[in-house]
Amino acid sequence: MSVNHAADRAGAPDLGELRRRAAEAARPEREEGLIVCENLVRIYQTEGVEVQALQGLDLAVARGEMVAVIGASGSGKSTLLGILSGQDVPTAGSAEVAGHDLLTMKRRDRLAYRRGTVGFVWQQTSRNLLPYLTAAENVMLPMTYAGVKRSERRNRAGELLDLMGVGYCADRGPGELSGGEQQRVAIAVANANRPRVLFADEPTGELDTATSEEIFAALRQANEELGVTVVVVTHDALVSEQVQRTVRIRNGRTSTEVLRRITTDDDGAQELTAEEYAVLDRNGRLQLPSEFTERLHMRKRVRLALETDHIGVWPDAAAQRAKADADEVQAETEGDDA
Amino acid sequence: MRAVRLRREGPGDGTPRRGPARPASLRLLRREARGDAPLLACLAVLVAVFTGLCALGPVELGGKEDQALRQRLAAAADAGAVLTVSAPVELPQPGLGAPNPPALRTQLESGGQSVVSTAGRTLGTALRPVRTTVDYQLLGIDSPLPVDPRVTQESVTLHHISDAPAYLHYVQGAAPADSTPAGELPGIALSTGEAKLLGLGLGQQVELWFQATRSSPRYEVLVRLVGIYRPEQEQSEFWRQLPGLDKPLEYPGQLAGTLNIAVQGLVGADAPELLAKQGIPLPTVGWEYRVALGDAAVKQLPALAADTRNLAIDLNDLLCTDSPATGDSPCSIGAHPSGSYVVDDGLTPVLTAFTGADAQTRALAGFAVASLAAVGLATVLVSVRLLLRRRAVHLRLQRSRGASATGLVLQRSLVTAPVLLLAGELGWRLGLLPAPTGTSGSPQPVAALLGTAAALLLVPLLTWYAVREPGRAREVRRRASRRTRRLVLEATALVLCVGGVVALRVRGSGGGAGIDVQLSLVPVLVALVAVLLLVRLYPLVLGLLAGRSRRGGGVVAFLGLRGAARDAGGTSLALFVLVITLGTAVFGGMVSRSVYDGAAVGAAWTAGADVSLVQQGDVAPTPVAAGGSSPVRATVAEYLRTVLLTGDEDGANLPQTALITVDPAQLAAADPDGPLARALGVLHGGKPVATGTASATAPVLADPGLIVAENGESLRAVVDSALGSSRTALHLKPVGALTPALRQDPVLGPLVAGLPADTPVIVGTTALEPLLPAQQTGGTALLLFARPGAAPAAVAAAAADALGPQAQVRVRAEVLGTLRGDGLVRIVDDVYTVCSLLAVVFGLLAVALELVLTARERGRTSSYLRTLGLAGRQAAVLQVLQLVPLAVAAAAGGVLVGVLEPRLLGPALSISQFTGGPAAPALHTDYLLTALLGAGLAALVVCAAVVESTVLRMRRLGGVLRLGEA
Ligand SMILES: Nc1ncnc2c1ncn2[C@@H]1O[C@H](COP(=O)(O)OP(=O)(O)O)[C@@H](O)[C@H]1O
Ligand SMILES: [Mg+2]
């Protein structure tokens, strides 16, 4: 959902129309996509304090897509991935991955889901692999859980490790691998049971830039060659710039999305364009970037104006006055300095 | 990077093929187990020790109980035959023309055998014949006439005692023949002393007379003195039991200034027939037994008690015929008709006392055992927690990779179960090896299985808890009720604890075989509640202290206290283990101390003084040389009589009362600080004063109940004399109350101890003695106070005959030795020592494991602080400091539990079975031991912390570098 979509619905918002929209919002109709989260809420309770890690997050990822999720530390990225990978349960909202409803999923389905539908790579290299198994054994472990035949396990583990470029590490223990090798083995492990989605939570967080590149390449390879949908949480601007879609989470909500496209201009020159979109949720909520609101001194209240092809957002009159005053003062001081 | 094409599958690409959740390969198990080896070994050792104890402990304990019972039976046998069966035998009278039955002497042995075979099986096998006796009633001596003119009455009791020859040496003549040649007089034998007193010489004819009642015919009997003996093996049990065979008894006659003499003489085995011919028909045949139990004595105890209870009935059932029609003697001894069998049962009191004391022993041992079990279980819990904590990351990883919770639980159990089962089996076998056979205790396989099962189940349970699927419902519930749940848990523990304590106090302890589970669990619950309280309180206290230290500027102290406060919840298991360990040790120390002190009180009560002589009846003691070079410093004589009281005011009859007279001057000299000595001052000598026409009125100290009943008015006391022939009346005026403290003055012990507990007691002075007749049912005690340094034996020897030969000698030191050396008391001590030691080992293990559990967290804190510039030394101090509050809390909590517990249990915890004495013994905390234990435990914990921090310090650098790692 992005602002472009919202434009289609422009029209006079009379009462009947609002009702219709409310009803439509309440309909359990889902957005298309392999991963669809709507209004996802996760509340942690620690020592009597409630932490709203996710507060109504919306996300849709199409099949085969590779999406980067970015956001400040503590914004809820890991929480989101924990829920999507079936290791945590949301408090409210809806989340569907490859047809599995993560809220109503039964215990057994959850297990099958973890075994077959999703794969996971954590940030800490040491936490992705069992230290007392070799790389190949680590890759085979999830297959054991899924009941894959022994010979097939071996073959597939070899193939996966080769694909990730760490075939030579097959018989080494994690302790004998570098951080980058460990993460690539971890990606192989995550792909062991041919998952439909691969989640990676800051997989390059502990690695240097060059190694990060390798890991990212490996992820992309998995995405392209194995056809697995990839959601990667990252801090790394380099990574996020290499994917078509970057979702930014702020305070437990998706706030903006950046879509990158390679456009060919009239001269035939290819150009990478990145457009930033704000996310409009089903209830019509929109998060305005703080740089924008601060700049215009928008606080608490804004004035909306519906135009034929867009919605204007204006600062409140009082805020406008405040801005004018501020500008004046600034102008004066600048004048004084001069 | 080499790209490899992968085979793609159809549309169902991502969905896994369903298969059974197979546990991971053996290789995985093996690899995992290798990392867990130390903890698994620790668990295995715990389980092995537990099962070993289950195998060995009860057997060993049973053996000790058996020993204690045998010890008590032996002591009882030493004091006199434990069980005597007797029956009056009827012998053919002259002229009745009855068929001549075989001689009685040929029937004695078979008679004894039939007693043994009639007794129940347990008693029958336990009976050890001591002697067979044939006893005659008192016979008057007609001639020769008394040597001493004051003697108005001479009497003799004749006995045939089967084992007497071994203890006699005939100085003149020989033992009376067992088959006297026809025509000769029956022979009797007397001791040298007796013969001399009666003025008899060897070969002299003695004329005896017998009259059953005043109206029945008087028979005269002629016998001849054929032997004069002196005792041999004087220290033997024989002479302790039958002193009268040697020493004649001289006692005052009914008329003032007259004397009576009673002697005991021996006759031959054929005397019954010979004497019967002369008209003395009914000797009593007695079989005396001691009782000895072999292996598994305690196990036989119930059957033995039942057999003993039923013995008289059994004998009379089997050896008597019911023939009310003829009115004949219904019983028989062999071919001889006899009267009913009578059992003089000295065994039942011994068994009853032992049963009571044994129940108490088990109750006390139960506390220790339950505490040890709780400590063991807590230690197992800590180890399992650590085992899982170390694997938590891996478990989570496996789970997220698709391992099922069941699979993971199975996988863990596959490693631990065989190890623990093997350990349990091994411990059991090892425990059985040294276990003695033939004791009352038997190995407890059920307990061993339960313990092993608990350890076995803890692993999968905690694993499951760690890896269970997150459930939405659970999450919501947890959010709503985590606090409530803690409160509910605490409240439950508190309610259970209070309920248990109240139930115990109401119900009391003892009774029932085996270890009382409810009783045993209460201390564990008390410790649990104490720990819950501590866990609540101690962060608060630490917070306060931390605030103070922050203002005081001690950064390290502040951080340490803060860290400790934060860890409070996590260390509660260690705290529990420590508190219960220390509580048990302190409790055991207190029990031991109380028994030790209580035994001193009990011994003082039984003996009254350093040595005392107690004689049945009121006898004037012969003076004992006191002071000077004599080992006796002072003596106090006191007399007991039973009196009937009526109120002077209302004429109401009062219950039978004991009147004790004490010489106040003697008592003041002997025991000037004693409560009774002081209280007797109000009697001002206690001389009876004649008031008007009425008989004399004497001031006394009276039981408070009597004073209340009579409003402090004087009482008329009627005292019957020894033979019931005269009664004396006098008036007693209570001028003071005989408070419980006075009544419990050890000085009164020798006389009061034998009275029923609720008998009112009146104490007067010996100034009353001239007015009071002697009573056969009364008692006389002569208390002997030793000169400092004098041996009790010397004191006893100095006054040996002061109350006649039959006086019972009680030596306080000996009584004390017996009480303190009692097998059951030693069992309690041993059980507490062993359990406390084991609990300390377990407890330290638990603490060490907890330290390892929390080490990473603490290590990270100090690593972090070191990166901020805290010196390495300070960081180490910090490490230790974080644990000091735990040590202090554990010490305080343990001491508190140990000291409070017995007070809480109150009447449920009675140790009076071990101590004797006038009242339940006071509980004495062994303060020195308690302080030592508390300090020792705290020191051990701090030591553990120091060792741990030293080890950590060596690895600190690595810790600093890997700061970010979880
Ligand atoms: N297990 C948890 N218990 C309590 N609060 C948590 C837990 N996990 C995460 N949080 C809180 O939820 C918020 C989001 O955390 P997270 O998803 O880890 O953020 P990110 O990965 O974006 O840094 C944070 O404020 C964090 O403190
Ligand atoms: Mg994160």
From TrEMBL, chain A:
Keywords: ATP-binding, Nucleotide-binding, Transport. Residues 35-276 form the ABC transporter domain. One of its GO terms (molecular function) is ATP binding. Gene3D superfamilies: P-loop containing nucleotide triphosphate hydrolases. It comes from the Bacteria. InterPro entries: AAA+_ATPase (IPR003593), ABC_transporter-like_ATP-bd (IPR003439), ABC_transpr_LolD-like (IPR015854), MacB-like_ATP-bd (IPR017911), P-loop_NTPase (IPR027417). It holds the Pfam family ABC_tran. It comes from Streptacidiphilus cavernicola. This is ABC transporter ATP-binding protein.
TrEMBL record, chain B:
The chain crosses the membrane at residues 37-59, 364-388, 409-428, 448-467, 487-504, 524-547, 568-591, 831-855, 876-900, 927-947. Residues 1-11 have a biased composition (Basic and acidic residues). Residues 1-24 are annotated as: Disordered. Keywords: Membrane, Transmembrane, Transmembrane helix. This is ABC transporter permease.
